[in-house]
Amino acid sequence: MKAIRYLAPLWAVLALGLNAGTLAIFDTSVGPMYIELYDKDKPQTVANFIRYIQSGRFDNSIVQRWEPQFVIQGGGYYIDTNNTPAFRPIQTFGNITNEFSVGAQYSNTYGTIAMARQSGQTNSASSQWFLNLTNNAFLDNVDGGFTVFGKIIAGTNNLNKFYPPPAPYGIYRAGTIYGTNDYGEVIYLDTLPVLSLQPTFNDLIYVGAKLVECKVRLNGPDRREISWNSVAGITNRVEVSTNAGASWSTLRDVVGDGTTISITDSTSTAPFEIYRVRLLFN
Which long-range contacts link 166-170 to residues 24+ away (Cβ below 8 Å)? Predict the structure, then answer.
């Protein structure tokens, strides 16, 4: 049983294990991937990644690069559907400091997520990320190391659809595709994964990035409402602690359906309580 923790507002925790981190979900065109982020060891990198998700800048984003037996990469482009569909670069918040050597050091092994950056420029990561399709530990020694800030804990079957080639799941590499950025400059993508030999914008691999968040609010005397965006098909266990997390009691088990679920605790009269939602992956 794995566990993920999201430290949310007062009295709320989304958890699976004492030292686990924020849970992010990549809801992709080929299936979901659940990613535990390393908040404690890579705080600036994780905060930067969360900022892009919460700001909406990853909305309608795509996997723009597929290097079979190496990586898939995203966070660089989204599809503008306001008029005629077009590739657009994701507006960045600026570069962040490389945190490869901050906290525990995580190697670029299979299933990990790391920050992409400009060649030869250690502190040039901004919005772009990549998922390692195999053991790429050599990246740990390139220009100060590529910062790993999380790992897929469920959904690796969907990551495996990109490896090994030729992909048996109808994923192909498109020829060079052109677009323009906001300055009228030409964008070309020649390692773009697509779902058809004659691709349209519908055949791109989209990434719907979101966080699993838990909140608690008072809803009348001695009534506390716990709500969270549930993970579909998995038992979401709501637990409560009255002693700062030293021990936990099960409040309710709910099978998630992907929507926001709310339950109310009206049984306790304790002056202080912490709630958490544990995700019981098999």
Answer: 167/68, 169/30, 170/195, 170/196
